[in-house]
Amino acid sequence: MAQTTSSALDKALADHQILNEFYGPVPKAPRRTPMRELISTLLSHRTTHADEELAYDRMLEAFGDWPGVLAAPLDELIHAIRTTRWPATQAPRIQDILRRIQAETGGEFTLDFLADWPTERAMQWLTDMPGIGLKTASLVLLFNFRKPVLPVDAHVHRVMQRLGVLGPKVSVEKAHEVLLTMLKPELDPEGLFNFHKHNYWHGQQICFFQRPNCPRCPLKGFCNYYTEHFGPATPEALAATPAHWDAAAWGKLPH
Prior knowledge:
The chain is an all-alpha fold. The chain has helices spanning 8-23, 34-43, 49-63, 66-71, 74-80, 87-105, 119-127, 134-145, 154-163, 172-183, 189-205, 224-230, 235-239, 247-250.
């Protein structure tokens, strides 16, 4: 692999194959409803997962349902989601988003209609809403509706840059287009979903921003970062790499 994997596409496909073996295929069931995926991801910006979950739960406990959230006094909604990074910004955005969904559906609070829309139309509609960027829209469309899109967050971006799939000046926003253009002819939506999840986990669990755990990494055979810091991966280093994620020893992976 280290000798034959050179092009960006070759590396991306090798990454996909190896991490699929390392972490295992991800179950197909969506982790959350479309509405929760959209609002929770909005709340998660620069916020820990625990604080995002706390804000979401407090919001629904305080106001009961989406009509209640929409009708809530703004200062009370800000207080309910206070564990997020920017509650005073996110609270009016949430209510604006709910109004737009209500207008699109004729009064209901559901995103199920996106299942029948072409991907481009659904992406445009979502990203026209306040606070919804490419990552959030892509998460909703891929996770809930299996549209052929690819979310790129900081973890996926970091892994792709260290491998050499993305250039050092490719931004996270630009990476959505670059990676999807590269991989869409090769991977179906299930493949794109697993590619996202596996590289997200890899950035969280091994390819850290600081002091990545390179000895544990199964991608070292064709990783630019590894070569620059340790030299080409030796047969001994490759042989010592774990073949699979050891949940008992290292902890369970996040959902």
